[in-house]
Design brief:
The protein has about 325 residues and is α/β, with parallel strands linked by helices. It is built from 14 helices and 7 strands. The chain has helices at about 5-15, 25-30, 50-60, 75, 105-110, 130, 160-165, 165-180, 185-195, 200-210, 220-235, 235-250, 265-275, 305-310, and strands spanning about 40-45, 65-70, 95-100, 115-125, 250-260, 295, 320-325.
Length: about 325
C-alpha cells in the first residue's frame, strides 16, 4: 500500500472509531454496583466520554450530586455535549467536573466540602479515543511523537523516559509494568540505539525494538511495551493506590466501590484493596482468624462482559469488574 493510501485508510479508521469518544464498558453492571441512593454523593474518577457519568446521573434524584474527574483536556470538552434529548453535563446542577488526576480525590473532596461519599466508580482502561488519536503516541499503529501523557500539561513524555532513563531503569519499567521477560535485552538495545540518535517518535521506537520480537508474538509484546511506557509516564500505579486509599476513607458505611480493570497489575491492586484494605494485600486477622477489611465483597466472582458486549466493543474483552461495600 502506498504511503498516501495508507494515510487515508488510517484517517478513515480514525474517523469511524472516534464518532463516539469512548464506548463505556460494563455500563449497567458497574452503575448497578453503586446501588445509587436518594441524596447520595457519587464520584466517577474516569469521566472520559461521559458514558458512565451519564448513566449515574440518569439514576440520581434531584438532591444527589456527582463529581467526575478527568485530567485530559479532550475529555473536558465532553461536558459540553448532549445525547439525544438529554442535558449537557455542564447544564446539570447535580454535576461537577474536576479537571484533575484522580490521585487528588481527597484534596478535591475537601475543597468542595465533601466529607463522605456514597459511591465511587472507576473505569481504569485507556479510552478508545486515546488509542485512535494519531497525535498522542499511545498506539503503535500511527507514526506520532512518543508522548503518551494523559495530561498534556504534565512534563515528562515517553520520549523523555526512553532517551534519559538508565538501562537498568528501562529494564525495570518493561519488566514490572509490561511483564516482558526480555526486558533487559530491550533496554540494552534502546540505550545502544539512542547513542546514535534520539528516539523521538513511535516509528523511531518501533524500528529500534521490532527486531527483538518474534513475529507470532509481535503485536502482543509491542502492546505490553507501550503499556509499560504509558504506565510510567502517567504514574498510573501510584495514582491508583492513592485514589483507592482516599476512597476507602471517604466512603460512608454502606457506600460502594465499583472498579473496572484491564490488566493484571491494576486488577491485583484493586482486588487487594477490596479484600484486605491495602494495595499490597497484607492481611490482618482478628482473634478468630478472620481477615479484617474495611470492605465486604459484593461480587465474590469477578464480573466480565458477555459475548455480545465483547463483539460490540472489542476493548471490553480484558475487562474485569469488582464491587465492594464499605462496612
Amino acid at each position: 500500500m502506498c504511503s498516501h493510501a495508507k494515510s487515508t485508510a488510517q484517517s478513515n479508521v480514525k474517523m469511524e472509531k472516534t464518532e463516539e469518544y469512548h464506548i463505556p464498558v460494563l455500563l449497567k453492571q458497574s452503575v448497578d454496583g453503586l446501588n445509587i441512593q436518594p441524596g447520595g454523593v457519587y464520584v466517577d474518577v474516569t469521566f472520559g466520554g461521559g458514558g458512565h457519568s451519564r448513566e449515574i446521573l440518569s439514576r440520581m434524584d434531584s438532591t444527589a450530586h456527582l463529581y467526575s474527574f478527568d485530567q485530559d483536556a479532550d475529555a473536558e470538552q465532553n461536558i459540553l455535549t448532549t445525547e439525544g434529548e438529554g442535558k449537557r453535563f455542564v447544564d446539570d446542577p447535580r454535576f461537577t467536573f474536576v479537571r484533575s488526576n484522580f490521585r487528588y480525590l481527597k484534596n478535591w473532596m475537601r475543597y468542595y466540602g465533601v466529607s463522605h461519599i456514597d459511591g465511587l466508580l472507576g473505569d481504569l482502561g485507556v479510552s478508545s479515543h486515546h488509542f485512535d488519536d494519531e497525535s498522542r503516541g499511545f498506539s503503535f499503529r500511527f507514526d506520532a511523537p512518543l508522548d503518551m501523557r494523559m495530561n498534556k500539561r504534565a512534563g515528562t513524555t515517553a520520549a523523555d523516559i526512553v532517551n534519559t532513563a538508565s538501562e537498568s531503569q528501562l529494564a525495570d519499567i518493561f519488566y514490572l509494568y509490561g511483564e516482558l521477560r526480555s526486558a533487559r535485552r530491550i533496554a540494552a538495545t534502546i540505550v545502544k540505539a539512542r547513542a546514535d540518535k534520539p528516539i523521538l517518535t513511535t516509528s523511531d521506537f518501533l524500528n529500534t525494538v521490532e527486531p527483538l520480537f518474534r513475529r507470532e508474538r509481535e503485536k502482543k509484546d509491542m502492546a505490553k511495551l507501550f503499556q509499560a511506557l504509558r504506565i510510567e509516564v502517567n504514574h498510573e500505579m501510584s495514582a491508583l493506590k492513592e485514589m483507592l486509599a482516599a476512597a476507602t476513607k471517604l466512603l460512608r458505611p454502606g457506600g460502594r466501590l465499583s472498579v473496572i480493570t484491564y490488566h493484571s497489575l491494576e486488577d491485583r491492586i484493586v482486588k487487594n484493596m477490596m479484600k484486605t484494605g491495602n494495595a499490597e494485600g497484607k492481611t490482618v486477622q482478628d482473634f478468630y482468624g478472620r481477615i479484617e477489611s474495611p470492605f465486604t465483597l459484593v461480587n465474590n466472582k469477578v464480573i466480565t462482559p458477555d459475548e455480545d458486549e465483547q463483539a460490540r466493543n472489542p476493548r471490553s474483552r480484558s475487562a474485569k469488574l469488582r464491587i465492594a461495600e464499605k462496612k
